Amino acid sequence: MCRIAGIIDKNRSIDQIEQKVKGMCDIMAHGGPDGEGFYANAGDGIVMGHRRLALIDLSPKGHQPMIYQHGKVVISFNGEIYNYLLLKKELQDLGFQFKTESDTEVILLAYAAWGVESFDRFKGMFAFCLYDADHQQSFLVRDPSGIKPLYYRAVEKHLVFSSEVKAFAETDYSYTEQQDWKIYFLAFGHLPEPYTTLNEVQMLAKGHYLIWQHQSDTFEIKNYVPEQVFKKITNYEEAKTGIQQNLYRSVKRHLSADAKIGVFLSGGIDSSILSLLADEIQTKTTSGSGMLNTISINFEETAFSEKVFQDIIVQRLQGNHSEYTITPNLFAEHFPAALKAMDQPTSDGINSWFVNYFAKENGLKAVLSGIGADELFGGYPSFKRMGWIKQLKRLPPFILRKSLRFKKAALKRGYYLSYQNTVGEYLFLRGIFTPDEIAKLLSCSIAKVDQVLQNTSINPIPNHLNDGERASWLECNLYMQNQLLKDTDTMSMQHGVEVRVPFLDQDLLVTLAAINSELKFKGERPKSLLIEAFSKMLPRAIWHRKKMGFTFPFQDWLKKDEHFLRSIKTGDNTFASAMVDDFRQGNLHWSKVMVLYQVFNRV
């Protein structure tokens, strides 16, 4: 896990470009505290930068950008390749020789052996720039699940790329504000890919690569993930076995590191399974200081604390457990830093800042997280609500638009279904503000809000999916993709901590795609298949309870933070001011006031 940046521009001096790339890397130094490096080629006008967070091959040999065959191929890489040892053996059998123990070198030699076909062989989370001097081409490549971010600007015969949007401000190219970002943000609570707050900067789509031709200064974006045909798993026991085996192997791969690694243990189903599997794996292969590290966060407010469930799991572990309590005073002390850490607007992410803060305090450089389990196994209320959507969408749009007359937010969101598209379904389930509220907050018309949201560049849900699969598609491709993964990457990197997500392992995803959806989502209890797969390992007390989710007592803490509330620059917008007052009275959810703060305060 690192931070990468670079510029390709033959119309500027290489020294000038290198100065700008260094500035980009400096502003992202938090994400790569273990060193920096640069590569420049004046002939093709390319400079790559790298900030390193060392986890595999901690020696200077793992330094980046890494060069192969005297500069024939060069890479600046952010992420982890979990099958790198298998690929390394395959390449060695082909006659390739390695100089390091790093996964970075495996990417270089894999490209030398197989070209762009190598990209689909990598199993992990990654975003990298690879320069091929012989063919005068450069590639920006992002992993199939979009775990690692990769932003780019490709206009006026130059290319700029970075792990964070804020780094683009360190260049002297001109940027303009994306005029509709506030509408997206007020509706979604995040900016859906590919949008950013800047017109000229976009997120590279997951499972895609951008190829830049240095001779012509032109580019194309291509999908490198082939369509797969699965033999359907229709037997329940076979499905359980497949999940058991693949998640076990995934956790084992994700524990690979030459630095201190651990697991976030919330006390919920997903983190408990990961902790128990990781403990089993670690006790088989290590001892003493090499035992599993787990970390938990708690609160003085008992309604938000899951300590009793964390303790049940900790009693079954043989490793080292650390727990921390976030008090109102500690939250108030660090809340301004967490706000400042945001790269792109988000209604969430503060909790991720704090949990990674404590991971760093504990000396951890990588931590396993349960992100993906709810989205893949049916852990959210949306999986029970797709039938409602199907029924409501049969109503004429003009009837659905009358939903704005309701007072209750969940009912008002019925308006979004009048869009008759993917965006409408998602916003019905998870929308933050409704179109009439957005119009009043931005002093524009509802028609303007509708026009922007109805034309949002988001892929449609595939028609062949049933209700459970449709919910999973929405949660994975919109909520997880744009909110959870983006927030987790941004906030963990603020502390130089790598968060790994075993539930998004490619082999496990292939298995889940093959399981018949009736098996995958059957049962009255959410995530029944996952629970059944690990029923012999998972204590009943962990899964036989109401889902809490990992959240903070934000409602009470922020309501008492008058400094924060007064800092929301609503100006003469009386509707926005009234909403802040509603929050003070306990009549507005904390996520909405977080959105208001960023809409009215972002520079």
Mind sketching the topology for me?
Layout: E1 2-8, H1 14-27, E2 36-41, E3 46-52, E4 66-68, E5 73-81, H2 84-93, H3 103-114, E6 124-132, E7 137-142, E8 151-155, E9 158-162, H4 181-188, E10 202-203, E11 208-213, E12 218-223, H5 236-254, E13 261-264, H6 269-285, E14 293-299, H7 307-314, E15 320-326, H8 328-341, H9 350-361, E16 366-368, H10 373-377, H11 382-392, H12 397-400, H13 409-412, H14 422-430, H15 435-442, H16 446-454, H17 467-493, E17 498-500, H18 506-514, H19 517-520, H20 528-533, H21 540-543, H22 554-559, H23 562-566, H24 574-584, H25 590-601
Parallel strand pairs: 13-14, 13-16, 14-15, 16-17
Antiparallel strand pairs: 1-3, 1-9, 2-3, 4-5, 5-6, 6-7, 7-11, 8-9, 8-10, 11-12
| Rg over C-alpha atoms, rounded to the nearest angstrom | 24 Å
**Uncertain spans, ≥5 residues at pLDDT below 50?**
none
The overall pLDDT, averaged over residues, is 93
**Secondary structural class:** alpha+beta
Tell me the total number of β-strands.
Answer: 17
| Oligomeric state of the chains present here | single chain
Q: Kindly report how far apart the N and C termini lie.
A: 29 Å
Work out the strand percent: 15-25%
Q: Order of strands side by side in the largest beta sheet? A: 2-3-1-9-8-10
Shape: globular
Number of helices: 25
Question: What characterizes the major β-sheet?
Answer: 6 strands, antiparallel
Helix content: 40-55%
Plain-language structure description:
The chain is α+β, with helices and mostly antiparallel strands and 603 residues long. It is 41% helix and 16% strand. It contains 25 helices and 17 strands. The strands form 3 sheets. The protein has a 6-stranded antiparallel sheet with strand order 2-3-1-9-8-10, with helices on one face. β14 (293-299), α7 and β15 (320-326) form a beta-alpha-beta unit. The protein starts with a strand and ends with a helix. The mean pLDDT is 93.
